[in-house]
Amino acid sequence: MTSPIDELLARARLVDRPYVPLDITHTSRPFIPPQATAAAARVMPGEADRRAAADDLTALCQTVVSDDAAVIALGDFLTEPFGARVLGCILQLTDAEDSARFWWQYAAGAGDTAASYCLYLHHLALGEQNQATWWQQQATPAPQTPTPDEDPPARFVDPARNIAADASLPTTLRVLKALKIHTDQAKNETHAVEAVIDYVSAAVSYVDDDVELPLPDPDFTDHIRALTTHTPHRPPGSRTTSPLPARSPRKTSAIAAARRRTLRHPDQLHPAPQTNL
Amino acid sequence: MTTPPAPQGVPPRGKPGRRLGPILPGTGPAHRAWLQPLREAFHASGMTLVELHQRTGWPKSKLSELLRAAGRYPRWSFTRDVMTGLDWSGMSYEVVRLQWVQAAREANKRTAWITACLAQSGDSTLADSAAVPLDYYAFREMHQDHYTAYALAFLRSPVTAEKAVRDVFTLLLLLWPDALGSERLERYAWELLRETVLERAPKDNGRPTLIEAAFDTLALKTSPHPMHQITESMTLFRAISHLPPRQLDVTVLKHLRGLTDTQIADEMGISLAAVRSTARHARRSLNALLYPQHHQGGTPR
Hints:
- The structure holds 2 protein chains of 2 kinds.
- Chain A has helices at residues 4-10, 22-27, 34-41, 47-65, 68-74, 81-93, 97-109, 113-125, 129-139, 169-180, 183-203, 220-230, 254-264; strands at 204-206, 214-216.
- By secondary structure, chain A is mostly helical.
- Chain A has one domain (45-141, 152-262).
- In chain A, a hairpin with a 7-residue loop joins strand 1 (204-206) and strand 2.
- By secondary structure, chain B is an all-alpha fold.
- Chain B is built from 15 helices and 2 strands.
- In chain B, strand 1 and strand 2 (207-208) form a beta hairpin.
- The interface between A and B is large, with 41 and 58 residues.
């Protein structure tokens, strides 16, 4: 009869040759002296590296998008950097790369680190090394100083979804990729995700030829919420169990909703329908 | 012009007015081992610092620092230039280089810095050359794979791990006479490997961490609950990181990399009995840490 510690140790065995995408390794290793690894690792982005970056970005976008909180935040994409990041991820998944880049830049400008990381991967996948490096630096926290017990802010992960022990971004990405190995888990989420993605790809367009702004349609928020309510959701903790279209229990107020409408479409007068919570 | 009183340890000077101070107190023996003959050569040459500057191109202040072991430990290229400026005065390149490496380690310079210095001077490819001692060659062939396995557990990227192991063997070649003269060759080399790998491993609170290896477990590939598995591995690996050095190494080799006890003994240069005993201690420590309520026969910490 093996004791728990022996079983634990039995599961400690590592595979013989782990595949580690180059960029992830080096984001999480600030202590390697530059001259030792620079030559070895920072080669010009070859085909394989770009594909790896593209795969990583897809994995990241898929997971960002499949979070309950994410699609709800979409409704506030103009005021919530998180929402803008989600929008960018959705657009990336539908191959609207330019639009994706715009919204990530918007989110990154508002301080969303994950969006910076998305941009890093985005440029890496395109072989644009300089831009990639710049965004990587934006995404990495204060370099080279080991931060002791400072609680890592949930830079990428929404506070509602606390992943394992280490919330650092590259580690989180590895977690996500590990999750993707088990596609049955992912399948349950794809219906809502697919619906949202399909809608978004249709709803976001370049409004004006002169203004290079990829803006969604006026009813965007409502549609998103409708889509995410009416599709079957994952187990406990889900907020959207009511048959009525969900209203985020957060700070949605008539004023905020009205302001959103104004920003998007100055001419639209009718306020968003509100139901009593 | 009167000559100031000769400081301790410096042979009498020929010319008046030269003001080279003594070797700084606190300089380690390995450093003195190459510096002392160098100073003697300098004095014997009758050169002034200015002349040495003219011969080597290095600023007088830096030369003075090197000759007194002041300031930072000098790079190999600098040291070599000074030796060249003094025509090496009968000293062998290989010997001085070996001493320089030993003193660098004594000065706690990182192995990455040391090998970078050597690379800078074109001295790092010597391990690739055909002219290596046969016993060194055999040693490298025998241990390379397991060394790389150990490095991979901490460094994870094959590129980084292989570079680290290559650096280890470069240093080992330079230190080979030292290694052969040590009590146990395998243990000497293992210490070099350990130092090199841990120096380059990611740190958590200043301590080398194994956490990211949590993504590389075999168990994860077949687990129905990947999140749970990753969390479990991270917890275990964090605990392992906190073990004392020998227990850490044995645990990594045995449980993370699957080496047999005999293989571990061969790699680490310790006895089989020591491996087993260390493994037992490690297991007890981990058990106490991770399952405090299940204490099985070990003394509580």
